[in-house]
Amino acid sequence: MLKNIIQGFKDRNKPRMATLQPLNKTIEVPRDQTLLQAALEQGITFPHHCTVGTCGNCKCRLLSGNVRAVLDFSYTLSEAEINDGFILACQSMLKEDVEVEIDVSDAVPDFPIETFHGVVKETSMLTHDIMEVSVEVDRPISFTAGQFADIGLEGFERHRSYSFASTPVQDGTKELKFHVRHVSGGSYTDWLFSEDRTDERFELHGPAGNFWLRPADAPILCIAGGSGMAPIKSILDDAITKNINRPVTYLFGAREQRDLYCLDEMQALKEQWPKQFNYIPVLSEEAEDSSWKGMRGLVTDFINDESTGMSLSECHAYLCGPPGMIDAALIELERNNVNIEQIHYDKFLDSRQLEKN
Ligand code: FES
Question: Which atom of ligand 1 is nearest to the CA of 54?
Fold first, then answer.
């Protein structure tokens, strides 16, 4: 009897095994570690960023076995993804041995995450609450269009993540741009917006993130809101330099006309783009009697073949913006038969909830 109890105790503490496909590697996962922690400690290049269940970068598919979610996956993953067997490795404790599939085709071209020191060169307002911050770092940084960097300021405990708004340069660049939205009551952006911050110094860690344009011939549907413009603009500007020849429809959601920006840049892209390029701004709170002649409603109301002028089921979709917009867009894309594998997104976290503003 005692022997059985001791054996049961030993089994309960025995590490679980995780087989990672298509790497065909099996690792031990101690009972007090998540799948991601164990994989990283054992030198596996496992896509990840936040490690707290919010960015979705560690998403992988559970092929067999069972896990316990530390933080409910539905906070970050869509219903369709969960039904498809996706889990977040950073939030998964193993209940038993598992086999998971990491999408290695999804791995971003490899630029190491490094620390850079930078200085603010210039700031300019793009809208009433979005600022373009131009900076220079101490040595050239290479990144992939769509990725982001963590910016650390002296006096602020946590770093904040911002997507590169500028275009990557082959051998790296010291000059970068970011779009920063003012989150009222948020100490970080209150500080930035309260006075001229030219010459302020900061630390930058990056590049990071798994949001980038996958090679394919499929038409591209972009959907963004707020400062989600930055990575999409970077991707599209970069695509032009690479002669990418795919039709694009870009739905951009904003509240009012005063929230629209980069309109000239979108017009320039339309003129240069080698195929169809539709930029469709959609306003949700514009006054009825205003001069606005464009689309009104929620940007997600326009996710259909007719509004986008595309056969959505054939598209690859790139989404960037607040979680509510992304979640609603995922539902609409699924309703329009866009396969989950064809959708890539970057959720901008609610910085107040995460104390990241
Ligand atoms: S690393 Fe797991 S959700 Fe961000």
Answer: 3
